[in-house]
Amino acid sequence: MFKLLLIISILFSASFSNDETTSTNIEEQIKLNNDYSKEIIKNISNNHYLNNPTNINELNETINYLQSKVSINKKQNNQLAAFRDEVEIEILKLNKEFELTLIDITNAINDYKEKNYFEDLITKNLEHVKSVNLDKYTKIYLENKDIDSNISKAFSENYTNLYNLINKQTFALNYLQNNINTFRKSNFFIDEFNLQYIIKKVDTQEFIKPISKVSDHYLNITVGEFLVVLFILLFFRLVNTKIITMFINYLSKFLSKVINKELYDFDALLKEGFHTPLQFILYTLAIQISILILVDDTVLISQLTPWINTIYMAVFTWIFYKITDNSISIYAKKLLEKYPNVRKEMIVFILRILKVILILIVILFLFSQLGIDIKAIAASLGVGGIAIALASKDTLANFFASLNIMTDNSFSQGDWIRTDSFEGTVVDIRMRTTRVRTFDNALITVPNTEIANAHILNWSKRIVGRRIKMSLGITYECKMQDIVNLKNDIHNMLVKHPDIANDENTILDKKRQFDVIKHEDLRGIKKTLLVYLDEYAGSSINILIYCFSKSPDWEEWLKTKEDVMIKISELVEKNNCEFAYPTQTIHVKKDDEI
Questions:
Q1: Domain enclosing residue 107, as ranges
Q2: Distance CA 324, CA 378 (A)
Q3: Most CB within 10 Å of its CB: which of 74, 185, 311, 316?
Q4: Residue 454 is part of a domain; what is its CATH number?
Q5: Separation of alpha carbons 333 and 207, rounded Å
Q6: Which tens digits make up the pLDDT trace of 242-291?
Q7: If you ran DSSP here, which 8-state letter would residue 242 be given?
Q8: What share of the chain is helix, strand, coil (3-state, %, to 5)?
């Protein structure tokens, strides 16, 4: 049948060809077409179409130019000239599609595609060739072929070339379709031994065949499909539980030998950032293969494909983020130990921005998979940018307020702060809000604009010094010299106390001695130590004790103050003094005193 159609097409081709083609008999034409098709196969085999591709961009530019000419000629009522250019456009389009098909076939050979893929490529090109409506121009050709004018001659020549090109490409594509094995060797494992082959073998077994018919009728699944899907799930389960763990352990040991292990903890880096996402990928792959086996609806599969591809993209993005997160966290820990002034909140902030960017990339990838025009979305965002900015002005204000907080360094994560509205420990500084844990263990979430403009009392911005202040009352019955001795002993005790800050145990950087007062205030260093007789109170002589503990930590401060109070009690007893307490003395005069 194919040969008969071929001969008929050549006969018709000869009737429309030029003088040289007319003189060529049918056998010679068949030979020429065979030689041309064989030459194509030879060029495919040696990657000729990849190494010497036609400039597709130039073809597109020529087509666009001719389309512009067609529009102009139609407006000027030059119909024949417009038809001439339309026919030339069809010739260029056929050559372009034919060239792209040959390139795709060459790439498919290099990628070891299955046989059906080649058949689909050739069939698609054949359909494109058949879609050319040559009959539209046949009547015009017959009317103008004998007219002696430049436009008529050019139109007739283009028509003849188009007719011959259609027959030539049809012959070549049919030849390629019938001789796929000559340029693409058959492979049993790729073409035959696949999952469908296994399913068919299982379902055709004598004792399974009736069961498969019943299950296919009622459950829409055969025994072969069920067994293959079960095998796939079990296989990937085995891979996830055993093989991946072995692979990651081996990779961790290998990297530890190649790269300095002190810089990176590869066990934590790979297991936390690579193990779980890789398992997720393999389970998704198992589900996808199972869907391809069980679902016969190609439309449904095409609808599910963009979502599955997006899942893969999301998981790969997840892997990238987790590895980056773990790497930065490990390096940041060492960086903070080496450089205490580095803001850890800024590192966390950068990671959060990176997370948002990666999420946006995944969303844009999903849009592209669903066929949504991303450029149109970007353009609409540009047009509606003002509306979006107005709608999200509070969010943007909080975002920039978070940057102000971090650059101003008014407080950091873990600091004890107090404002007019709340008091507690800073949990974290996020892009929109700051979270504070109060001392009764409640969590307060404060917008960054509010906290950036508030008066903040930061108890943690001190390196040395937490104040101890007390007034020690001594009874009037005690001798003044004993009270003075007590005061001196208390002062000496505080000077020698290892946990009380003073000039001897709190030494500033010598390079900044010229700026010592400002330096103390900036860094939060207090070492004032005062012990003086303060006042004559109603029932006691008071001694003012004013000093600072070396540690700013609250619990350490309590321990230091407790120890100071115990030592003061011992010194009071040592100097024959007594603690005063509120008393009132009533003096009654005798009669002889009246």
A1: 2-192
A2: 28
A3: 311
A4: 2.30.30.60
A5: 65
A6: 777 777 777 767 766 666 555 555 555 666 666 677 777 787 888 877 77
A7: I
A8: 70, 10, 25
